Amino acid sequence: MDQKRPLLEEDDDFVYHNSGTQRWKRITIALLAVYNVLVSVALAVVVLSKTSPTEGSTLTPPPSIIQKELAHELQSVQAHPGSTFSGPPSPEHDEAWSELLRPLFVNVSASELMRVNVDPINQLRLFDGGYIASLETYHHLHCIRRLKWHLYESYYFANITDAARTLELNHMNHCIESLRLATMCHADTSLYTLKWRGEGKRPEPINHGQRKCTIWNEIEQWAMPRAVSNNPKLVNPDKLVVSSTTAEETGMPRH
Ligand SMILES: *[C@@H]1O[C@H](CO)[C@@H](O)[C@H](O)[C@H]1NC(C)=O
Ligand SMILES: *[C@@H]1O[C@H](CO)[C@@H](O)[C@H](O)[C@H]1NC(C)=O
Question: Which sequence ranges are marked TM in the entry (predicted)?
Answer without folding.
Answer: 27-48
